[in-house]
Amino acid sequence: MTRTDTIAAAATPPGRGGVGIVRISGPKVPELAAVLLGGELPQARHATFARFLDAQREPIDAGLALFFPAPHSYTGEHVLELHGHGGPLVMEALVSRAVELGARRAQAGEFTQRAFLNDKLDLAQAEAVADLIDAGSQQAARAAMRSLQGEFSAMVHGLTEAVIDLRTYVEAAIDFPEEEIDFLADRELTARFQAVRDHFEGVSDSARQGRLLREGMTVVIAGRPNAGKSSLLNRLAGYEAAIVTPIAGTTRDVVRERISIDGMPLHVLDTAGLREGGDAVEEEGMRRAHAEMRRADRVLFVIDAAADPDATAFREERERLPADVPVTLVFNKCDLAVGIPVADTLTGPPRLVLSALSGKGLEALRAHLKSCMGYQTADGGTVSARRRHLEALARARAHTEEAARQLNERRAGELAAEELRAAQQALNEITGEFTSDDLLGRIFAGFCIGK
Ligand SMILES: Nc1nc2c(ncn2[C@@H]2O[C@H](COP(=O)(O)OP(=O)(O)O)[C@@H](O)[C@H]2O)c(=O)[nH]1
Ligand SMILES: [Mg+2]
Fold this sequence. Notes:
This protein is of the alpha/beta class and 451 residues long. The chain is 45% helix and 17% strand. The protein is flat, with a radius of gyration of 28 Å. Magnesium ion binds next to helix 9.
């Protein structure tokens, strides 16, 4: 793919609409426009009424033509937009005509890819374009808009600056070896590493929230057999997705449901009850339950509030739950547990009291899940982010920790500087200062044609 190509595609979705727009971008636009519009180029950035002509100079359609000369366009190249009548045949005829005149059909995301390659947007911003288009809730849309305006990129740049400062500090010390001993014992250095760590923490938190808003949160329902896990899944899903019986050990495999709470996607997984002494099938079910919990964003640990008001089940299982996945304790069957005080001797996880049978307390659970996804904080500055960003942040952070270790344990300034350089490079992948063609290909392939 060379950037000397001129590309064309319908920018509006296929189907019928009042208006349909064909976008053409590339160096051939001026000559192509002159022929297609049967005369002169329209005045730059002015909506001009025109006929869009075929090879016989017969009008295919008539509408508005807009010419954006390079570099002041979405892609940074010459761009022509034709606003015609929104019908699939009209759009196809206009794109074919552009192809006859030397353009080729654009691939998915190619306009935005060119905008990225011409420095109109960085990579995180380009991804935010797709996120904005795909947003399933107002919050997700606002978060995507913030990323598109560069808020997330600015956070990543701030972090990169902090890593560069640290690296410069370390490298300066390597250049003056006679001072190295003092330097390594330096409190200043420890403080600087800590500051960078805190900075990582802040940016990773924002990115994690952003990813939840975009991709949805994965919630695993776990607990003892018969606590009401499957009943809870069915309540959330709004239909009988999982089999519910009074027999312990009914659910043996993982049951998955995709639900949405006010437009926010949520993946809910019901699992086999955790207990000792099940048969081989139940054992395998529990193994799967644990595997899903490790991958989850949150575990809803369901307690039978009538049978186990002290949440003994949770205390017993706690050790085996993944340490880094947050838990919410759900005291179910509150309809049976009237008057039974629900234990508050446990510190830590948030707790909710509800009845999967009657539906009491379900609204509070939905509100809780929404707040875990950043629903409330979305107006307080959540940005949109992707798994790719979180992975790059984690890698950068690991390199920074390794740098600290090289200094503390081995006094190896050179190696520490090298690790910091790798950290910086991982951060640069987020905004795209450092990327492979392969990565770019994968990112833009996820866009729609014409964007
Ligand atoms: N009274 C009452 N019974 C419930 C409630 N939730 C579930 N159950 C009952 O508890 C039994 C086990 O429920 P189930 O959802 O299969 O539990 P699981 O083994 O944890 O998946 C069934 O007989 C349900 O009808 C509740 O909130 N109140
Ligand atoms: Mg079940």
